[in-house]
Amino acid sequence: MKPYRVGIAGFLHESNTFLPVPTTISHFEQASLTRGEALLHRWSGSRHELGGFLEGAQLHGFLPVPLLATFAVPSGTIEGAAFEELIGKMVDDLSSALPLDALLVALHGATVSEHFPDADGEVLRRLRGVLGPTAPMSMTLDLHANVSPRMIDYTNAAVFYRSNPHLDQRERGLEAATLVARTLRGEISPVQAIETPPLLISIAKQHTEEQPAKGLYDDLHSVLQWPGILSASVAMGFYYADVAEMGASFLAVADRDPDLAQKA
Q: How far apart are CA 54 and CA 65, in angstroms?
């Protein structure tokens, strides 16, 4: 039996919409922009979630199909032309790589472009449109994500960082890759539920080893012990992105049981 073919992609930017200077294509090129085999060389063995995706490929025996991965340092809203160019290339790479059995995507969750306040949701919409409705697609998000319902609607399983400072990126990428591999093998069928209460958490109180943030992650780790729960996440949000979905969110991924996911 041939190994499953799983696409690997990434588009990460923490967008401060209050900054007057926009983020351009050159900001991404200066930080990191890789396609195809260059993605494998850049990210294999790294502590990043993309490194975790590739570690998952080795662990579970699926074939990683590298598409496009890029990031820019946190800065202003992304220029519309830059967003279209980058996402256009990612979609083209995905189209050229078909057929794929699944897709792993590393996103930030607080990305804003000139024409798409929910830029992460727009990326997922376009990728899902090319991938098709049935292939599993899992994503990772930063702990500072502003998570929209459509980010969850377009994916089968989402995994957010659980550490601030961010010390667990590779582990979360490996977790997302494991969920995809288990789904492809027919062992699980993930369903997700998200709650987005009207809650802002001061960025000065987002250290996950200190209260009050620690209490949220104590709850998270207790939920992870529930039978039938595959994953759970807290995003504390990024309030320098002035968008409708800005704020904290709470996510659970259950195996075949939407009521359990909602309860968690």
A: 10
